[in-house]
Amino acid sequence: MASPDFGLMVRSSYRVSPFDEKSAGSATLCACCGLPAPTGGAPWQGDAARRVCEICDLLQTPTRPTIDREAVLIWMPELSQPQVLALAGHAHSVLLEPMFTKPREALGAFWEHLVDALLSDRPLPILPESGLPAVQVLRVLHARAAEAFRRLQSTSPLQIVTAMMMADVSRGDVAKNLQDVLAGLRLLPVGRFYRGADDVYADLLRARHALHARRS
User: Fold this and answer.
1) Average pLDDT over residues 115-131
2) Judging by DSSP bridges, how do beta strands 28-29 and 47-52 pair with one another?
């Protein structure tokens, strides 16, 4: 499933439509997080044999225009990047699962409220008791953004990756410092994913849930 080379890519790369929509519904498993990839996945570093879901593909597109609304950087060297993505993705699915049978508008409104609450001090919507462990997992992950900020003075993927791309890696000390930072830095999806102006994260979770149920 997960390979140790899955990590934040320090490069400028933004694809408008990287996915093979003809593969949608094929229940491809993401090579990074191991969860179903509803749209068939995108090749990891050009390798068609290893395909990643749209959320894990953010690792390859850290300078996309909406990245700072979709993800935050955290400091968590004790977990690999695939583990962080799997934890966040599973926790998000658990929280949204009671709404999967609702209309799209209700699903989106509930998820937007929940994400806003998780990212702030606002009260959470009413959740079943089964969802409380998922909330705790997400809060633990998000709490590690403070350490990333202490070290880098930012948790913005766009700012940090841009700064890294500008670094003079021909200098040995700079290259080593960059390597050390990347060893502990992780990309944490916050629960949003944009196609144009539309946040489709909740739609992706519902499609992922349907594929998972089909495989069970």
Assistant:
1) 90
2) unpaired
- Residue 157 above 70 pLDDT? yes
The CA distance from 173 to 160, in Å, is 18
Please report the pLDDT score of residue 5 as a whole number: 77
The position carrying tokens 């766009």 is 158
d(CA 171, CA 33): 34
Let me know: does 95 contact 135? Beta carbons within 8 Å: yes
Could you tell me if 13 and 61 are in contact, meaning their C-beta atoms sit under 8 angstroms apart?
yes
Q: CA-CA distance, 140 to 123, in Å (whole number)?
A: 17
Measured between alpha carbons, how far is 205 from 108 in angstroms, rounded to an integer? 11
Is it the case that residue 69 has pLDDT exceeding 80?
Answer: yes
- The per-residue pLDDT for range 70-110, each reduced to its tens digit, is 999 999 999 999 999 999 999 999 999 999 999 999 999 99
The pTM assigned to this predicted structure is 0.89
3-state helix/strand/coil string of the chain: CCCCCCCCCCCCCCCCCCCCHHHCCCCEECCCCCCEECCCCEEECCEEEEEECCCHHHHHCCCCCCHHHHEEEEECCCCCHHHHHHHHHHHHHHHHHHHCCCCHHHHHHHHHHHHHHHCCCCCCCCCCHHHHHHHHHHHHHHHCHHHHHHHHCCCCHHHHHHHHHHCCCCCHHHHHHHHHHHHHEEEEECCCCEECCEECHHHHHHHHHHHHHHHC
